[in-house]
Amino acid sequence: MKISLLTVVIALAYRAFGTNDWTKACLGGSCSFDIEASPASMSGTIQISGSSSSISDITPAAGWQILDCSGSTNNQTVRLVCTDESLGCGHIFQNGAQDTIVRLPQGCGVGPFVRVANHSISDDQSIPTKVTSRVMKRDGTTPQVHALQIDDDFSQASGQHGNVSFEVHAQGDFRVANGPKQSKRQNGSGSTFEVVFIQPESVTPFDLNLTCPAADGTTQTQFMFGSVSLDRAQFNTTIDITSTGTMSPPNIETLSFSAPSDALIILQSNFEAGLQGSTDIGFDLGSETFPSFSIAGVLEISPVFSVSGSASVNAQLLTNFIPETAFDISITDLQFTYPSNEPPASVNIPAPGLSFDVLALPTAGSFAEFNIGALFEFVVGVSAFSQSVGLEFSYSFSSNMILDSTPTSEDDEQVCIEINDVSQLNLGNSNAFFDAFSSGNTETIFSGAGSLFSNCTTLALGPAPDVTHATRSTLQSRDGVSCPPVAALPETSISITS
Ligand SMILES: *[C@@H]1O[C@H](CO)[C@@H](O)[C@H](O)[C@H]1NC(C)=O
Ligand SMILES: *[C@@H]1O[C@H](CO)[C@@H](O)[C@H](O)[C@H]1NC(C)=O
Ligand SMILES: *[C@@H]1O[C@H](CO)[C@@H](O)[C@H](O)[C@H]1NC(C)=O
Ligand SMILES: *[C@@H]1O[C@H](CO)[C@@H](O)[C@H](O)[C@H]1NC(C)=O
Ligand SMILES: *[C@@H]1O[C@H](CO)[C@@H](O)[C@H](O)[C@H]1NC(C)=O
Ligand SMILES: *[C@@H]1O[C@H](CO)[C@@H](O)[C@H](O)[C@H]1NC(C)=O
Ligand SMILES: *[C@@H]1O[C@H](CO)[C@@H](O)[C@H](O)[C@H]1NC(C)=O
Q: Which first-to-last residue range defines the signal peptide (predicted)?
């Protein structure tokens, strides 16, 4: 039983995205319009319904022939003539043509539905000859040419035909892969994916150096360095947006967002602390826009995937702490329906894989902490009538790498090194939006924190260096960092590789 029901649901879902039926006029108080997936557009459908006089049709299926119409705007005055009254030309005049919502034929307007702002008999009664032969009556006369002023400013409607409600459903299969920036359409088994490529980005948020005093009156160039790269960013999703509301009067009653996803991220960082001080920097790691979905005057959907990062350091005294790390993050089987949370959201995010190489030669009592953060955001911008909202899910990852030295006696120190991570997956909407959202909201559907590595070692300190008066006076400071004071270094360095 279950299987056959599922089959029916799938069959209906496919039918919903079928092609438009231009042979049947929309004269019964409802109409639908389908958009097929293309490199520029998500697939989807809009269905409108209202009283029988509220929705009409000016396509040939209803007997109308449009004589001149621009395909680049919905806001225009079109001339049209009835070629076959038996098909229902007169329907548009029921309860007055004004404020009727009409379906436009292909190539006329940016479609699919417009409001009749005004109707009149056109001052220009000319009819092209190829149309004349089809519309000529037996007595040799031709029918009147009508003029319809149309637009998609549904808020101007008087409401004389009653409310017109709609339901929009849009869907897109998207993939982000690594590679040179380009966009490409890929056919999978039975479905097509829109693939965008994010260039592996490498960013150096800080690269500072100072000439610092060293032992015995010499100097040495010391660095505060940080680089972060997104070695891999794979993201596969199928987004689904459903919205219900009224075109007349304009309102969005519900907006539902689901985007089952899988992602694979490899984030790499290289740091070095030879100076003391702190710095904190945010940067972009890439963004890509996916195909959008548009029902002019009603709803526009524009999905964007972006990655941003941050890096910070806080160091006291000389640590010579040089951690190189690579985090391997996977997000599998993310499932959610926002805002209903029905069925409840679920996701599988294991602790990130970590490979690293740490070097350190810290002076007693020194401390350094590096932090890298990355924010992966998938924001689906929805604009309807006069308002906009962002539906989003975001995954944030951050890791801190800490070195902490505690003097244990005159001659040695205990050095602890830790690598920790924190991550969170949020769903939300940016702001209030008609009746669908009364305010912005964020829900956390996953949060994790853990220790990825921790080690304490006791190191013997070497002899205290000579600190001359001259070297003390050359201590420099710039861009939030300064030379650490000269002090005894440990006899052996720490070197740990995983
Ligand atoms: C539509 O066109 C009319 C007449 O050209 C103009 O007055 C009006 O401002 C236009 N409306 C929009 C929304 O562009
Ligand atoms: C509708 O068109 C008629 C005839 O052109 C005109 O007199 C009238 O002012 C128009 N009404 C509106 C609301 O634009
Ligand atoms: C028409 O829409 C308005 C605004 O959304 C609503 O208040 C009203 O109840 C609706 N009328 C009907 C008959 O559904
Ligand atoms: C991919 O799909 C498009 C349209 O859906 C079709 O024209 C094309 O031939 C397909 N390509 C392959 C390799 O199957
Ligand atoms: C030190 O930094 C300056 C810029 O502040 C740069 O021009 C120089 O190449 C750097 N020196 C080294 C050795 O990296
Ligand atoms: C995304 O889809 C492609 C093609 O099916 C697959 O090779 C890849 O492993 C998927 N990526 C993830 C993170 O699931
Ligand atoms: C810490 O790391 C050092 C150097 O790799 C190693 O010898 C030591 O066993 C580690 N200590 C612990 C508690 O893991």
A: 1-18
